[in-house]
Amino acid sequence: MGALDGLRVLSFEARRADELATMLARHGGSVRRAPALRETGLPESPEAHELARRLAASDIQTVILLTGVGTRALAAAVSDSCPDFARHLERATVIARGPKPLAALRELGIGGAHPVPAPHTWHEVLGVVDTLGAAAGR
Description:
- α1 links the parallel β1 and β2.
- The protein is elongated and about 60 Å long.
- It starts with 7 loop residues before the first strand and ends with a helix.
- It contains 6 helices and 5 strands.
- By secondary structure, it is of the alpha/beta class.
- The chain folds into 2 domains: 38 residues, no CATH class; 90 residues, Rossmann fold, CATH 3.40.50.
- 44% of the residues lie in helices and 13% in strands.
């Protein structure tokens, strides 16, 4: 007998919906899926191109990447206008808020990012920023 026997479970998961539904069903739940989010591409982003331009000019010293999806989307958005984006990003101090932006950076061939420790909230992000600033004498 599973912990969810006889219960109806509503799953809002979109990206890993099948895995979650299988897990819930394995514990006896009757699963209904209603994905709450859908990822869509962004329209042309002047801000992304400006960021790439300023990274190329070394005008930006620190970049904080919050999500893997956002990291990949940023790289894709500037790929035509800034083919060396990964190289320019790697010159900056990069802070990655968790394992997903770190994985996206690895896909781009970028190492040396400063990971934010769990639970990856704003508090831990600021802790890394403070530590790096103190190490740089700022």
